[in-house]
Amino acid sequence: MARYFDVHPENPQRRAIGQVVDILREDGLIAYPTDSCFALGCQLGNKQGIDRIRSIRKLDDRHHFTLVCQDFAQLGQFVHVDNAVFRAVKASTPGSYTFILPATKEVPRRLLHAKKKTVGVRIPDHVVTQALLGELGEPLLSSTLLLPDQEEPMTQGWDIKEHLEHVVDAVIDSGDCGVEPTTVIDFSSGEPEIVRRGAGDTSRFE
């Protein structure tokens, strides 16, 4: 049975954030809000959590997971970013973008794209997500909370709790989220390729 946390969107309660992080550190899987839409998240080394996300979303092994990072320093530990890409990514973060980049050795192999050895990374512009990342001290392994039988992500925490209470360990509710997932930009070749148009403006990458 999932625990439900009603968290203030501008002043997240430290106790609640701490309790959610405890759940994550005990190999829990959470549903949490971001600046685009709700996401599923677990710790990087949580193999069972990854399998649970795949099961909930019915994903195959070609799916790009995303490392949701607190800041640029953290992001730089997990992906290789050259100077030209750095400027483009820096200008768009924090924000509703996911960037696909070559992974460093810090990223577990099972999270990498099988052929390209890449991973998705993002820095969200969301107070609650940032509080969570600050307390956790490492990126959240994440995937958009889009269920296989639905065309759009769910937008309300109580609805997610009702649907997923037996398959996740915690739901954070800090108000309605949007339905547009992040815009995905693939920089693995050095040039930007728009993979998915979403909540972030694509004009600077065209």
UniProtKB/TrEMBL annotation:
It comes from the Bacteria. GO terms for molecular function: double-stranded RNA binding. Residues 14-200 form the YrdC-like domain. It holds the Pfam family Sua5_yciO_yrdC. This is YrdC-like domain-containing protein. It comes from Amycolatopsis japonica.
